[in-house]
């Protein structure tokens, strides 16, 4: 990786008309949120935009200003509406150029049709990547040996990924070893959960006071209802370095709200 800046924050841009018109359910932003939490990255923004050059440019620029690590999902296939590569290139004054290593890898995993001109051109669209001699402006990473799909990187922080969830997830996992050396050493967070039957309105004052007490420790308090079982979960999130303090807070919350500390797995079971 050519970039050297430390990663504290992240943003995600979901690109595609199909998401906005309800044809496709977006699961990538949720996966990315969990991914960031696990790595101790503060996810500060998620945006969904159509297959529109101006919308993509605006969203990516805005997210790059807000975050150290930006991921886009979608719009890099072979059809006319797959415009993510050229749009992001344009946003940063770059051209797109046929990336021969991507073509070579594509040939290893898929049959390239040299006889059908239209089909060949469509396939090559997926290898037209943002280009610059300066790696800090445009780079290309192959992070999973089982895939030919590259991760194009623009401005050292924008990582362009496909929208297909299986590919999106595999490439994100492949990026872990790339971005880990750039993560802040104190960034990893822990989430404590307390399940209670106390109504949110009844515990609102208590949680407001608690948040005020712990704000200097960068601890965040939240509550989430489970309508079907008439219970609520209180979430306490903070730095792993404050684990003993977080445990104490969770126990205090459980005692005050006559609740119980539960695991993330239990919370997911309740949520479903």
Automatic annotation (TrEMBL):
Identification of the protein by name: MoaB/Mog domain-containing protein
One example of a Gene Ontology biological process annotation: flavin-containing compound metabolic process
Domain MoaB/Mog stretches: 11-183
Pfam families (UniProt xref): FLAD1_M, MoCF_biosynth
Entry-linked SUPFAM superfamilies: Molybdenum cofactor biosynthesis proteins
Single GO MF descriptor: FAD diphosphatase activity
